[in-house]
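Feature request, filed as a ticket because there's no other form

It would be nice if the structure record came with a short human-readable summary line next to the tokens. Right now we just get the raw output. Example of a typical job, pasted below so the devs can see what we mean:
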Amino acid sequence: MKICVLVDVYPHPFKPYFDVQFEEWRRAGHELQVFSLARIPQASSPVSVTTLKSLREAPLAVPLRILMRCVVATVRSVKVAIAAGSLHASLKLLALDSQLPLTAPDVFIIHNLTAGARFWYLKKIFPQIPTGLYYHGGEIPGVAALSAADCIRAFSAPDLIFSNTRTSVMEAEGRGAPMTKTRTLPVGLRLEDYPWSGTRTYKRAGRFQIVSVGRVALEKGLDIAVRALSELHRRSKVEFEYTIIGDGPEMANIRRLVQECGIGHLVRFTGALPIAGVAAAVRDADVLLLPSVPRNTWRENQACVMQEAMLMGVVVIASDIGGVSESIPLEMRDFLFSPGDHAQLAGNVERLLAGAETTLHALGNTGRDFVLHKYDVRELNRQILASLAETTLRVPDCAQTPYD
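Raw output as currently delivered:
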């Protein structure tokens, strides 16, 4: 099958599930074309990706491509322009479309609502091609929220809309996604990347190892974690070390807060690490803290780092936000805390770590089993394609000829 993937930002070091999904589609024998509206500087990708340019970014090359496309695919270009409406919108859509292949794929997969708002027109050009939009949640702070009209247009175009959790599906429906099109389907992990001996040891170095992983930004709530662990250090005999893996705009503030709270000797900053480095650091941890707070239209959704940690026997303590409670086993939900409540977080960490070690072992095994049964990327990839194949009656050989 020929799959055309359209993403808002790729490669992206904080979204390794894209890499895994794309690699596994290739390994399954599918032909993959990946196009991105932007990329993170210095980020690398295991698959080939074409970064699309705007008229502003390439004021000579893109107009030339538009002209060439209008000549070789006149009917398609006219349909793109008509779909856009205004002259300005037509130029923007023609700029994008002129950089996409003439030959239709077997399926379009659009990742993120921002990309959906840009590529909504493809369904009008290729009505016979199954098209899926994956909604990964709301816009993070610093990214302007899409207008209601853009959301409705983006959600109206595809045949199906996938999202990680029932909570995020309901969020998508609240922003205009038709209920008849939505499907709850998490993104997956390559399970063999997380080997398991069947047992593991906790508190190996005489202190519990606590870790947080991700972009160091306001919405990740690391200040809540620092305040909670400072309180735990003052009142409890539980011995711990806390490692923060990642980088971002709040790094200087978090470093300063650590010193102000008097736990500088207990906190380690690694900065951003490659995927293998993150896995190694998490594997050595006992507890993963995910203290996220709601910001802008964003809520923590599946939080893939939780599943990665659980595959390695790490116990998750997280804020009860978005789709988090759906993405961990029932037994770990007892340790969820209200977003922003550092006192409750401190109490939950103390309750877990001051308890019997058998509790950690039981939770670690339960967490791994939970992920093994729900998050196999190969099965989830198959479900995406199978679901889309059922939605649209294909025209024979339409993928073999240009639109014109």
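Something like this underneath would help us a lot:
Residues 394-403 have pLDDT under 50 and may be disordered.
The first helix runs from residue 16 to 27.
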